[in-house]
């Protein structure tokens, strides 16, 4: 029988269902069924006609630009075929015809020098020493490392102790009463001079788009499409984010209560729970984490404001430690986040381990915000597979468990020795003692039974305890542990089937879908949010300018003098206060009049627009022109009531931070414009029959984050509007479009 062609569809030329002009329905249906199945089979044959290798037909989540040759990383049904293909490939490549010309000249020299440099750094690590922070050419650095190794060997006969206590090169890097120096890179140190790699950088660099920001290389988003997968994981499973770029500091003070009161703007005894909310330094700067233990306070904030908060805490405490490179963190979102985490965190027996095992059985969305566990765990790599830990005692109900945790003291969820180890540089460094390399772990597993799930028990018992801090935030579970234990924990965590991974963009998506603003993007009234808006506007403009002239959109016909590439808060402040200062302006003929000092006289809206455009030349881009509405501020009260008076030098514009949702169909994009709804056109907009474009004088705000919300099944947005707007309805128009849509808004929490 000849082979089937991938592009031939079998069909019946003579239709047997038609006899003597009479159609037999059963035979006709059977004939069509045969043809449809033949077409489907031809499509499959065509798809796999050129896919002769296993790695060309992997599931989406396993596809890589440079695929792994480890057969354990592909489905079991394909492993035998993959082994056979790799064997045939290696056998075929052994002949002389497959030999490729080697690397020559300068490229070969660079490779040899890099290899020598890596060998010297590895030799230093085996001697348990840190490489010196050398700079210069590769040859100079090789010479410096060689001299360092020679000096160490000469001093080996003396009583000098090694700097490191492990073969992995892990150590605690902390700055006492000063900012810590970035850690020297274990490999590729030259790439980490300006932007520090997080512990999981190598893992993320293969699978994610990375972004350089705030002194770190941050995983921004996966290379695969994952918008729906992120929503699905956040609703039914768990999604993990590596957030070690967040800055952590530990302060010691004789008056902890006063320090916490200044940071949180709250009076009273510090709670046993973790504080999640606004951090004041001394004014409101960002949302962060504050946790107290005895005379120490641990503060975790966004890297954009770390230096500002560090200097404020330093002036109000006895001693402060910069732990940015000593403590790393992960965040997990989703109802199964705590359950997945408990599979890889093998806790030691202690006062809080029972509560931890009990609460990890429940949906973590029901756990109150601020719930905190401080535990001790073993190296998660000691176990092959993640398994749910057993609970020996009777399992209480979730309400009873929460009540018992709230009514008891802090020792029910916090182990004092492990809490002290987490906050101490010396004890954190002790947790790295004899940290196993991958080769050492492989040797340990080879000595055990193939059916065993872990290495020998005496090795596990003799290994040091690792302090771990777990707390519940508004949308995620935050995990903090020593910096060089983040990677082992991450590797085991992502192997859990229910866990998906995400970057900074996915964390923004989760917050957005739940109606929570994301710092700093959705906080334009703060200095960091203002700078972020300027950066995004500049990037959007540069991308637009690189397009050919035929592909560029003419924004002038849509936006007039408003910046089309971002949220133009400068224009909003000037148009609102300008119309108040010149109440007699009208939509007259565009003409210009100037006074004796060549200043433009404002008689029409066009004059006001031109005056605003001229004032951009003297604009201070670093000055924040809007501020969040404060009910205790007298000017804000007058502004909201409409009884305020405006001076020629305009004050910052009071705004409300809001979330909005479209009433009818439509889309909302970033930096969309928000307008007042004319009363006469409200019913028309409700019915979707009005296509009038609002006037610029009706502009009241902008959308900082807008997209389709899969959780609600509708387009929503987060933004800011003028504090004098009272109506619950607004109009939304995307930048560069004429279509306007009706939306309803409410304040964010």
Automatic annotation (TrEMBL):
InterPro entries, sorted: Pop1, POP1_C, Pop1_N, POPLD_dom
All copies of domain POPLD, residue ranges: 476-569
Positions of the Pop1 N-terminal domain: 28-252
UniProt key word Iron: no
MF terms (GO), sorted A to Z: ribonuclease MRP activity; ribonuclease P activity; RNA binding
Pfam families reported in the protein's UniProt record: POP1_C, POP1_N, POPLD
Record domain POP1 C-terminal: where: 697-745
A Gene Ontology term for the protein's cellular component: ribonuclease MRP complex
Keywords: Nucleus, tRNA processing
Intracellular or extracellular location(s): Nucleus
Single Gene Ontology BP annotation: nuclear-transcribed mRNA catabolic process, RNase MRP-dependent
Location (main, coarse): nucleus
Region of interest: Disordered: 84-105
Descriptive protein name: Pop1 N-terminal domain-containing protein
């Amino acid at each position: 029988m000849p082979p089937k062609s991938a592009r031939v569809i079998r069909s019946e030329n003579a239709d047997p269902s038609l006899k003597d002009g009479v159609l037999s329905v059963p035979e006709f249906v059977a004939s069509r069924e045969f043809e449809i199945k033949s077409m489907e089979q031809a499509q499959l044959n065509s798809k796999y006609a050129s896919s002769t290798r296993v790695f060309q037909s992997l599931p989406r989540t396993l596809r890589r630009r440079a695929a792994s040759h480890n057969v354990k990383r592909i489905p079991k049904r394909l492993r035998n075929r993959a082994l056979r293909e790799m064997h045939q490939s290696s056998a075929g490549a052994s002949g002389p015809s497959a030999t490729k010309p080697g690397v020559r000249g300068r490229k070969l020299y660079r490779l040899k020098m890099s290899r020598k440099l890596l060998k010297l750094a590895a030799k230093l690590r085996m001697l348990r020493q840190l490489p010196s922070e050398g700079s210069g050419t590769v040859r100079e650095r090789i010479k410096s490392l060689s001299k360092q190794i020679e000096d160490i060997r000469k001093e080996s006969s003396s009583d000098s102790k090694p700097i490191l206590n492990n073969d992995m090169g892990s150590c605690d890097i902390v700055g006492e009463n000063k900012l810590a120096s970035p850690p020297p890179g274990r490999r590729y140190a030259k790439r980490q001079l300006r932007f520090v790699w997080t512990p999981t950088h190598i893992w993320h660099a293969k699978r994610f788009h990375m972004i350089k920001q705030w002194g770190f290389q941050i995983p921004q988003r996966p290379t695969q499409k994952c918008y729906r997968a992120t929503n699905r994981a956040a609703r039914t499973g768990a999604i993990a984010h590596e957030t070690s770029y967040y800055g952590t500091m530990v302060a010691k003070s004789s008056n902890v209560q006063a320090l916490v009161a200044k940071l949180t703007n709250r009076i009273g005894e510090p709670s046993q729970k973790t504080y999640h909310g606004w951090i004041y330094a001394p004014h409101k700067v960002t949302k962060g984490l504050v946790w107290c233990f005895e005379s120490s306070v641990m503060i975790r904030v966004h890297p954009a404001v770390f230096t500002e908060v560090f200097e404020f805490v330093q002036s109000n405490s006895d001693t402060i430690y910069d732990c940015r490179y000593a403590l790393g963190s992960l965040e997990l979102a989703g109802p199964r986040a705590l359950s997945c985490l408990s599979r890889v965190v093998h806790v030691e027996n202690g006062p809080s381990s029972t509560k931890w095992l009990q609460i990890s059985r429940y949906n973590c969305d029901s756990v109150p915000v601020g719930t905190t566990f401080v535990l001790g765990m073993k190296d998660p790599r000691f176990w092959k597979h993640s398994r749910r830990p057993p609970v020996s005692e009777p399992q209480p109900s979730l309400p009873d468990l929460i009540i018992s945790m709230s009514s008891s003291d802090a020792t029910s969820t916090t182990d004092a020795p492990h809490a002290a180890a987490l906050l101490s540089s010396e004890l954190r460094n002790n947790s790295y003692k004899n940290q196993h390399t991958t080769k050492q772990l492989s040797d340990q597993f080879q000595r055990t039974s193939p059916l065993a799930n872990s290495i020998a028990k005496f090795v596990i018992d003799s290994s040091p305890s690792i302090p771990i801090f777990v707390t519940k935030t508004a949308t995620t579970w935050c995990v903090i542990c020593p910096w060089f234990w983040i990677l082992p924990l991450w590797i085991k965590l992502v192997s859990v089937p229910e866990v998906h991974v995400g970057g900074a963009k996915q964390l923004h998506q989760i917050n957005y879908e739940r109606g929570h603003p994301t710092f700093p993007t959705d906080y334009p009234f703060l200095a960091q949010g203002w700078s972020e808006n300027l950066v995004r506007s500049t990037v959007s403009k540069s991308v637009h300018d690189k397009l050919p002239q035929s592909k560029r959109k003419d924004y002038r016909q849509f936006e007039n003098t408003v910046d089309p590439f971002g949220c133009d808060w400068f224009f909003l402040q000037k148009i609102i206060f300008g119309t108040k200062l010149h109440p007699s302006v009208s939509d007259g003929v565009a003409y210009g009049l100037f006074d004796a000092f060549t200043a433009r006289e404002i008689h029409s809206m066009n004059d006001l627009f031109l005056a605003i455009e001229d004032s951009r030349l003297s604009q201070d881009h670093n000055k924040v022109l809007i501020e969040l509405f404060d009910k205790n501020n007298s000017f804000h009260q007058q502004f909201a009531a409409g009884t305020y008076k405006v001076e020629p030098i305009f004050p910052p514009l009071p705004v409300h931070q809001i979330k909005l949702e479209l009433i009818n169909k439509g889309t909302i994009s970033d930096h969309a414009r928000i307008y007042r709804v004319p009363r006469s056109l409200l019913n028309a907009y409700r019915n979707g029959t009005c296509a009038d474009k609002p006037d610029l004088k009706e502009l009241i705000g902008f959308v900082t984050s807008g997209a389709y919300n899969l959780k609600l099944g509708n387009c929503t947005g987060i933004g800011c509007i003028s504090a004098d707007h009272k109506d619950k309805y607004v109009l939304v128009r995307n930048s560069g479009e004429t279509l306007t849509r009706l939306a309803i808004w409410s304040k964010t929490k």
